[in-house]
Amino acid sequence: MSLSRRPRAALLAVALSAALGGLAYAPAPTYAKPAAGADIVIPYEEFTLPNGLRVIVHTDRKAPIVAVNIWYHVGSKNETPGRTGFAHLFEHLMFQGSENHDGEFFTPFELVGATDQNGTTNQDRTNYFQNVPTTALDMALWMESDRMGHLLGAIDQKALDEQRGVVQNEKRQGENQPYGRRISARMFEALYPAGHPYSWQTIGSMADLDAATLDDVKTWFRSWYGPNNAVLVLAGDIDVATAKEKVTRYFGDIPASATLADMKTNIPTHAKDTRETIPDRVPQVRVYRAWPVAEMGTKDATLLDLFAQVLGGSAASRFDTRLVHGEKIADQASAYQWSSEISGTFFLMSTVKEGVDPAKVEAALDEELKRLITQGPTAEELERARVSGVAGFVRGIERIGGFGGKSDVLASCAVYQSKPDCYKDDLAIYASATPAEVQAAARKWLSGGSHTILVQPSETPASALPETVFAAPATTAATPKVDPKFKTTPSTVDRKAGVPKTTTFPDLKFPAVQRATLSNGMQVTLAERHETPVVQFNVEFPGGYAADVGKKLGTASFALQMMDEGAGEYGALDFAARKEALGAELTTGAGLDSASVGLSALTDKLAPSLDLLADVLRRPTFAPGEVERVRATWIAGIKQEKARPQTAALRTLPPLLYGAGHPYAIPFTGSGTEASIASLTRDDLVAFHRDWLQPSQARITIVGDTTLAEIVPLLEARLGDWKAAPNAPKLAAVPKVANAAKARVFLIDQPGAIQSNVYAAQLVPPTGDAGTIDFDFANGVLGGQFSSRLNMNLREDKHWAYGSYSGARNSLGQRPWWASAAVQSDRTADSMKELQKEISEFATGQAPAKPDEITKIRAANTLELPGAYETASAVLGQIASNQRYGRPDDYIVQYKARNEAIGAADVAKAAGTLSPSSLTWVVVGDLSKVGESVRALQLGDAVELDADGNIKK
């Protein structure tokens, strides 16, 4: 277990999520607060079945849900050269039907409102997880046990071919990106010698996936997917007695497999540094450098986490201080430790600023690395890294499920170190580590040979590089002998009776909402949540992208970005250092209709964290030097957006849908254009802050470990005397525009692309429209769920795409709706034809919603509610959404009631909102391969655009 298994990009503040549905209001219960640092405890009990299944139980009664999280200690490292990708392929196959459930694994879960459901594979393990209402636990355990013990009879050639195609498109999707999957594949091939279990990709090679036979995959399953190689964690509204009875009933009769032997530590050493240059269709040079280092679970691995944080893990790191802020030679520079079971990997990465010699950046990275190894971190740097790591861990374990949640932590510790509370060891090392210990670990592991990859801009994408292909084994491996020490126990479960039916569901209990008003009119809304010592804030103002109309596109987003790049008495670096020292997360951003500043503060550092919030809100400095630094990085980011197929499409769509000059006719990324950002002045930013961050219009939403009596005086002291500027503008109503009169097709060329990104879009009524709930319900049938029509067609039936979905973005004006899919290039036109068919038949009533589809969407929209408000951020998102769109406090009650009342006629009427004959299509791909066939479809007039959305001549 490592507190920072993921790079810093994955540790940014959790985005607000608004979950909808009915509820009963309830006062917040009183909980004991977890202690900070090394005293953090996730209580658990455990037992092991006679067949070897280890079961860990954590009780958390804050919501009537249970996280079901099962880890198989089988990953890609257990494969052999020539048979790679099996662990990940089997992850997909296990979401197909089982012997006693004929259908998608997701279906029964959708019918009970499961949340946070997924499966993942890495080098060392495969896991499956979901949160279910407490009353649906029997169903979840039946499903997990049926695919563990009764899967092979349901796997046939059709299922294998289907999921092989899906996985290959997942692989293409990862490779069809700037700096894509091929770069990391080459890094691991260079660091780990041929035959090393980490030398191949978890997703496997195309050749191995093509070669996989039915016998191969069945042998793989028989060999390792037994209960004796698994850990099951149940966390939430559950106790150990209930868990033991249910788990024994459903899993006890499953026979063990062979026991997978633990692999020995295998950390290669390199006598010298090596390097290579890889061409890619990217706008900037990027440098990657990496070393094999200490494996997960060692003290050195944890010390290297701390070292990485100081070197390049935050905005106040050594790398940021010199390369980004000081010499301004890089737009980004980071360091992170990737912990794995038999070897860790330590990465440096930097995106070189345009026009700068990459050798200069490489030299600076190396000098800072060596300086930190030679001198060690300062006591202040180490303390900041310590606080930041622990704060991130505390935020993660607010949840019972999902990545970084309590069930995930317990499972990871049990699988990798056979010690469910191994996180305590990491926390203890964090608490006691000295600068000298961190320095010594870095000197030991980062002084040897490394591998560097320089990614150079080119017209040739990295996906064109040939894959390393290993010779396949001559024969399919024999199934190893079953471990004889494990026994089964009789079961009374009649599997032929099918999946257990869930007939009752818990009520949702939502924290009571309290209100206050500061002396300057700022509105304060609070919901108390005392389970975790964290307080979340969202300060929202009307404005956002819509405030840019008639001005320079991107002003709102750029101004908000600049507000925490120096505020009050702090310059940009000092501000970042202070934030890190407090363990605070502070975010700024704009949307279509609003600008917001968010804060996540540790309870014991609430007052000083609010000081930072007040500085950002009231006293951003907009220092000219920082404006120029961020401007250069921002423009580079726009170029990155244009190189990435998804964002290239989302930059182009808005002006096509809304028309030039409309408030929403800005790239949906909010970044503006290169020209508009280049022309921004400091005065523009100061004016935006003065005009649009008006305290009298602000809404402060707070959820967490505080009370109104505590928080209002703290806010009053910092914000109560803040007054709006005289004659501040008001946001004009968003004008309504007509959809296109006929279908149009816009093509954007990305030579060498191995997939095409397809979007079909139109405008639908605003979020506040009376028909919004019905439309979103209808969209659920078409493309809002995994098992909705679009995904089942393009992914599960045709396996031309990794996924295909549809949805509308919330807004005060007309909402943009689109259906999309990233499809293999040779099926671009065919996929567009299928999308057109599905949308048309649904919208015109040729293929109306079926009763089972209506039942499924109703269940998904209502029964998931008990799990939807488990976290403070989810509660915060719902309250903020209600205020933004003028909804009453009981809106979610109304939402639930309406969903329960929607019938077939309502869905048909809502589906008619779509206009299949006048859709706006955007296709991003290699037009030399797909352009002719797309034009031949004659879906509409086809026009080729450049990356800026201009018509190509």
Task: Give the arrangement of secondary structure elements.
Elements: E1 24-26, E2 45-48, E3 54-59, E4 65-72, H1 86-93, H2 106-110, E5 115-121, E6 126-133, H3 137-149, H4 157-175, H5 181-191, H6 206-211, H7 214-224, E7 230-236, H8 240-251, E8 274-280, E9 286-293, H9 299-312, H10 318-326, E10 330-338, E11 344-352, H11 358-375, H12 379-396, H13 406-417, H14 423-432, H15 435-445, E12 451-457, E13 509-511, E14 513-517, E15 523-528, E16 534-542, H16 555-562, H17 572-582, E17 585-590, E18 594-602, H18 606-618, H19 624-643, H20 645-658, H21 674-679, H22 682-692, E19 699-704, H23 708-719, E20 744-749, E21 755-764, H24 772-784, H25 789-797, E22 801-808, E23 815-824, H26 828-843, H27 851-862, H28 865-868, H29 872-884, H30 891-901, H31 904-911, E24 920-925, H32 927-937, E25 941-945
Helix pairs in contact: 1-4, 3-8, 9-12, 9-15, 10-11, 11-15, 12-17, 16-22, 18-23, 24-27, 24-31, 25-26, 26-32
Structure keywords:
25 strands; six-stranded mixed β-sheet; alpha+beta
